[in-house]
Amino acid sequence: MEYRDNARIDQSRVRYGGGGGRSPRGRGGQIAVGGGLGGIILVLIMMFLGGGNLGDILGGGAAPQQAPQQQSGPQPECETGADIESNRECRWPAYQTAIQDYWSQAMEGYEYGTLQLFSGQIQTGCGTGSSEMGPFYCPADQTVYVDTTFTGELLDKLGAEGGDAAEAYIMAHEFGHHVSNLTGQMAEARAAGNQSGPDSPAVRLELQADCYAGVFFANTMKDPDSLIEQVTRDDLMRIADAARAVGDDHIQQQQQGRVVPESWTHGSSEMRQRWVAKGFDSGDPNVCDTFSTNDL
């Protein structure tokens, strides 16, 4: 994935630092995966938060709250796309800039979200967040939380090729959740209660975020002002590979040796790849209404 050297990186909506002390890896040695990494955050997050109701975690369109004040960390000097080559940490605020720039143009009334980079554990508007959940979105404070180091480790554990395109897909998926929160469709998932399975509201919400990620990639390639200048065929293969790796069936087979569809909260590898492709092929957010179709 290539960046546009003269495009500006906006760090005004990025918080650095915060967190500390890596938490245990979940129960039974399992890797708890969340959000863009496509594990089972809507179930496993409750393990880390000590129980709770799925609706409370999803937020259900409640009035945004401020996240607990996080420890401030040093902000890298990232001004333009050219800085990514000399300081690879600049790619994280670059992803966020490109994604939110797109949605600010595509969605009337778009409200910018926040990106929080952290390490280990962190207090959020949704409770205690953990690296082992993978990147996740908290609707209560409208913030995407990412442990940049552990994200790469998790992709590797799930057998994904990784790389910038895979990371950008994860970030685009999480901000896709932000869009679903703004439209109120996240509230629809909450209203249905703690359901799981291939056609559950939880899966529909995750597939919608995948579709929105595909839409973003399709449009950022056409935008002469986007920070992302080019998405190559190899990049697209890495995005598809990441979507495969984070499918519920792949994760269950890898961790448990068997697939249990009735416990799915994110969708199978095939479903996730199909909805990323659907968003990419159309470039139209309107095709991402996963709540109104029986063809998931």
User: How many distinct beta strands?
Assistant: 8
Taken in chain order, the helices and strands follow as: EEHHHHEEEEEHHHHEHHH
* Main sheet properties: 4 strands, mixed
Structural class by secondary-structure content: alpha/beta
Straight-line N-to-C gap: 29 Å
Strand content: 5-15%
Mean pLDDT: 82
Q: Which percent bin holds the helix content? A: 40-55%
Shape: globular
Q: How many helical elements?
A: 11
The Cα radius of gyration reads 17 Å
Any low-confidence stretches, pLDDT <50, length ≥5?
21-71
**Strand order within the widest beta sheet:** 2-3-7-6
Write the layout of secondary structure elements.
Elements: E1 2-3, E2 14-15, H1 41-48, H2 54-58, H3 83-86, H4 91-106, E3 114-117, E4 121-124, E5 127-130, E6 136-138, E7 143-146, H5 148-157, H6 164-183, H7 185-191, H8 201-220, E8 228-230, H9 233-245, H10 248-256, H11 269-282
Parallel strand pairs: 2-3, 3-7
Antiparallel strand pairs: 1-8, 4-5, 6-7
Helix pairs in contact: 4-6, 6-8, 6-9, 7-8, 8-11, 9-11
How would you characterize this protein structure?
The protein has helices at 41-48, 54-58, 83-86, 91-106, 148-157, 164-183, 185-191, 201-220, 233-245, 248-256, 269-282, and strands at 2-3, 14-15, 114-117, 121-124, 127-130, 136-138, 143-146, 228-230. It is an alpha/beta fold. Strands 2-3-7-6 form a four-stranded mixed beta sheet, covered by helices on one side. A two-stranded antiparallel sheet has the order 1-8. A two-stranded antiparallel sheet has the order 4-5. A hairpin with a 2-residue loop joins strand 4 and strand 5. Helix 6 packs across helix 9 (233-245), helix 8 (201-220) runs parallel beside helix 11 and helix 9 (233-245) packs antiparallel against helix 11 (269-282). It starts with a strand and ends in a 14-residue tail after the last helix.
